[in-house]
Hints:
Blueprint (H helix, E strand, L loop, with lengths): L1 E2 L2 E2 L7 E7 L2 H8 L3 H15 L3 E6 L2 H4 L18 H6 L6 H14 L3 E6 L2 H7 L6 E3 L7 H8 L5 E4 L5 H14 L5 E6 L13 H9 L4 E6 L8 H8 L4 E5 L17 H18 L11 H6 L3 E4 L14 E4 L10 H4 L20
Parallel strand pairs: 3-4, 3-10, 4-5, 6-7, 7-8, 8-9, 9-10
Antiparallel strand pairs: 1-2, 11-12
Amino acid sequence: xxxxxxxxxxxxxxxxxxxxxxxxxxxxxxxxxxxxxxxxxxxxxxxxxxxxxxxxxxxxxxxxxxxxxxxxxxxxxxxxxxxxxxxxxxxxxxxxxxxxxxxxxxxxxxxxxxxxxxxxxxxxxxxxxxxxxxxxxxxxxxxxxxxxxxxxxxxxxxxxxxxxxxxxxxxxxxxxxxxxxxxxxxxxxxxxxxxxxxxxxxxxxxxxxxxxxxxxxxxxxxxxxxxxxxxxxxxxxxxxxxxxxxxxxxxxxxxxxxxxxxxxxxxxxxxxxxxxxxxxxxxxxxxxxxxxxxxxxxxxxxxxxxxxxxxxxxxxxxxxxxxxxxxxxxxxxxxxxxxxxxxxxxxxxxxxxxxxx
Length: 357
């Protein structure tokens, strides 16, 4: 898979997406600035911290949810009682705002601009702004929307939260029916806000990779970040080439997606830990490495004379000990050395070499 100029499968660090979503509205209110200014500030902070892409959400509450849609998130963290009520608070951005953010991002930072379309209109106006389309888990069964996205012939990042393999398979076939050789990333996701760590089930990433070896596997995370960003790091261990994580500038803000989001420092920690993990992974085939050369020679053992051994004397087992360094005859050759004759006198504690016997 390739997104813009990034070869996703040809790099060691995962392609990291900062899911800004609609968190900029809360940041704007907190800092008494415009939502557009807050959005740009969040892009700047995420890009500087080291992400590959920033992602927003393009929706209209009227097109997304019925006024009678019940919530499915933790209401102790987000107290809004209906989906429509929540979404209607954060749907002020449209074509003009996203065009400005996308253009501003491309001009100032080497990161990709992405946004998840939640309706047909958003698919159309995002076409010239995004290098790839992200599909939310909740729309994996929205085949009409998938078809329209597939026809744009761009990479598709498909979240699979709360989905069966059968549902994923049908979504993949819908995309394949519309475009030849599509580029698809299947993002493992748990559709629980926030996701309890024991529910993360990161082993499912490998399962997606096994079932769909022709496509890229990734992870969309809703687990509250820990100090070491262990959940995201574990997703890399389990094969995630693309990672999406909600992003905020203040994790203490109430509501929406701040309570399970990463901040700039989390991004830096994650990148540093991935570099460390890659560095410590090293060679995949077991063999001695150059740094072990001295250890192989001096930390191993040799056969050593336990007593004085006279020239021509047949060497007995009790005349031999096994000591460091390993510069002489290896203990592996003990049975071959016993009963051989000494070519010359060997003083006690001398290391045996083949020239001496």
